Amino acid sequence: MTHIEVDSLTKRYGDLLAVNNISFEVAEEEFLTIVGPSGCGKTTTLRCIAGLETPSEGHIRFNGEDVTEVPVNDRNLAMMFQSIALYPHMTLQENIEYPLKVKDVPKAERRKRVKEAAELMQMDEELDKYPGNLSGGQQQRVALARTVVGDPVAFLMDEPLSDLDAKLKIEIRKEIQRIHARIGEPAVYVTHDQEEAMTMSDRIVVMNDGNIEQIGGVDEVYQYPANMFVAEFIGNPSMNFVRCSLESLGTDDARVAADGSIVEFPIERRADGFTGDSVMLGVRPDNVDLSGTGHSLLSGRLSLLEALGNQSLATIDGPYGELSALIPRDSDVEEGTDVTISVDPSELYLFDPDSENLIARSR
């Protein structure tokens, strides 16, 4: 089993600071996802772990051994990228065994490992076929088989599902989790898709502008976002933010006011020392109500209704900007009408408007 340590990693490309002094660990058998917007440094971090990039500063360690300068070919890692990159002129047998052939693994051993990997991916009856004869999902399974065939010490995956349709993404996502559970080695998965991160991971590293914003389990990152960036990025639809006057902030409760309305709610304190007189109130769209019940806070005009299965996503325009609400499809509201926005006091967040860090959340 392998334990991966990223220690004070910095990567520069000339004047561009791609990764800024980040540190985290990947435990044995852990599935860790690095998530963030394009250009945040997540792929660069993965490439440094893989040995495809050399850190400007910092260290990469496997089981305590410094591998920062070890060539990629000597790290025994399985890597899967956005491009499937199967060789069209080779059979599936030849595609899967190619990494072993490069390492001069004897032919009999290669055939044995290919058979095991193909059986794992339920592709052992297709080994004489060529990639062009396969569906997209089957090609992904072949790519996964080629990834696991070398008995790697860890799996590194860089947005491997981004080119797939929604149904196939879910299918291959399950395959990756099943393979990881069976092989038992750590996995580092990179994606910009927070849904992938939330459904697949043991822990999540949220990155932005080369920095780590938060590291934590799925529930921790969702329920206790460290700041407004994490709160907005994790969760779909994104969290709403409203600047409110802070009427009081005690040890056990808070009172905020907006548009002449006051909401009081019990809190869990997450940060000490805040002395400001205004806060950013955060509330997720599924905790916003337009039926006129609950704690009324704002009013606005319903500008758009979008059907989402048994729910509708309502967009409300008002003096506090654009807000979103997830409401039942049979709600008695119409586009172009004025609505009252109520919030669930048990699911509210308070953020510092200057630092954007979490101050407290509902209890």
Please write out the topology.
Blueprint: E1 4-13, E2 16-26, E3 31-35, H1 42-50, E4 57-62, E5 65-66, E6 77-80, H2 92-102, H3 107-120, H4 136-148, E7 154-158, H5 166-183, E8 187-191, H6 194-200, E9 203-208, E10 211-217, H7 218-223, H8 228-233, E11 240-249, E12 253-258, E13 261-269, E14 278-283, E15 288-289, E16 295-308, E17 311-318, E18 321-328, E19 338-343, E20 349-351, E21 358-362
Parallel strand pairs: 3-8, 3-9, 6-7, 7-8
Antiparallel strand pairs: 1-2, 1-4, 4-5, 9-10, 11-12, 11-14, 12-13, 13-21, 14-20, 15-19, 16-17, 16-19, 17-18, 20-21
Helix pairs in contact: 2-3, 2-4, 3-4, 4-5
* Strand segment count: 21
CATH H-level homologous superfamily name of the largest domain = P-loop containing nucleotide triphosphate hydrolases
- Over all CA atoms, what is the radius of gyration? 24 Å
Q: Helical element count?
A: 8
Shape: elongated
Question: CATH topology of the largest domain, which one?
Answer: Rossmann fold
What's the overall average pLDDT, rounded?
Answer: 92
List SSEs in N-to-C order: EEEHEEEHHHEHEHEEHHEEEEEEEEEEE
Structural class: alpha+beta
Level-2 CATH architecture of the largest domain? 3-Layer(aba) Sandwich
In percent, how much strand structure appears in the residues?
A: 35-45%
CATH class term of the largest domain: Alpha Beta
Termini separation comes to 40 Å
Helical residues, percent: 10-25%
Strand order of the largest sheet: 6-7-8-3-9-10
